[in-house]
Amino acid sequence: MGKLDGKVAIITGGSGGIGLVTAKLFLAEGAKVTIVGSRQATVDAAMAQVAEYGDSVIGIPADTATVEGVQSYVKATLDRFGTIDILFNNAGIEGKVAPIVDAEVEDFDRVMAINVRGTWLGLKYVLPVLYAKKSGSVINMSSIGGLTAGPMPVSPYVTSKFAITGMTRIAAVESAPYQVRVNSVHPSPVETRMMRSLESGSGASHEQVATGIPLGRYADPKDVAALVLFLASDDSTFVTGSNYRVDGGMLS
């Protein structure tokens, strides 16, 4: 018996990095999964990696910052699987590394649209399905950058992640009467493309960043996926409104 047997999950930002690793774990634990990615090519590549799960997984290209995009992945999931039990609101971008005075307004708007608006829209269109069932779990992807401001000048990203931290708390309060849980996860640097981009933009080396983590290494995507699985499963039925660090002791 898997921890997610009989459950249906949507994973935005599911075609790579933490999202794809989580999709594989969810499928291995018995869930049916909708992988949402920003482009058809990346969705196709992700689907090739989970082909062994056959009809238990579908891939949907969608712009998660738009009403139409979010409605499309919700409808596709309901059409194929008939219900939704879990939403992993994982889609997000890092934006450009630059001090506020040098940052581009367009970059701020883009980061906020994908990271904040996209997360909020996921809640808006998935929560009614969960409310009707009087059960379900939403996990929002934040960051340690949603709990503290570090030295790297990425103000749009930090702003967006703090917003998700607050959004999680109010959504948890609103959803509790329906027995729906809403939590957020807050990773330190993870071995993904996003951190390669931030390292490049800031001039900080992988080794330099890792020395600031007490456990001495970046998180593996599997470290984050394991926490998301706990929050998605019935092991966390009395956990809501919580902000979970998975940071190797970085904020201790």
Give the topology.
Blueprint: E1 8-12, H1 17-28, E2 32-37, H2 40-49, E3 57-61, H3 67-81, E4 86-89, H4 105-133, E5 136-141, H5 155-175, E6 180-187, H6 193-202, H7 206-210, H8 221-232, E7 243-246
Protein described:
By secondary structure, the protein is α/β, with parallel strands linked by helices. It has a single domain, classed as NAD(P)-binding Rossmann-like Domain (Rossmann fold, 3-Layer(aba) Sandwich), CATH 3.40.50.720. It has helices at 17-28, 40-49, 67-81, 105-133, 155-175, 193-202, 206-210, 221-232, and strands at 8-12, 32-37, 57-61, 86-89, 136-141, 180-187, 243-246. A seven-stranded parallel beta sheet has the order 3-2-1-4-5-6-7, with helices on both faces. The protein is globular and about 45 Å long.
Report a brief summary of the structure.
By secondary structure, the chain is α/β, with parallel strands linked by helices. The chain has helices at residues 17-28, 40-49, 67-81, 105-133, 155-175, 193-202, 206-210, 221-232, and strands at 8-12, 32-37, 57-61, 86-89, 136-141, 180-187, 243-246.
Keyword list:
single chain; Rossmann fold; 252 residues; 8 helices; globular; alpha/beta; 7-stranded parallel sheet; 7 strands
CA-based shape: globular
> What is the name of the CATH superfamily?
NAD(P)-binding Rossmann-like Domain
Order of adjacent strands in the largest pleated sheet: 3-2-1-4-5-6-7
Mean pLDDT reading = 94
Bin the strand percentage.
15-25%
CATH architecture assignment: 3-Layer(aba) Sandwich
Largest sheet: 7 strands, parallel
| CATH secondary-structure class | Alpha Beta
Total beta-strand segments: 7
What is the terminal separation in angstroms?
36 Å
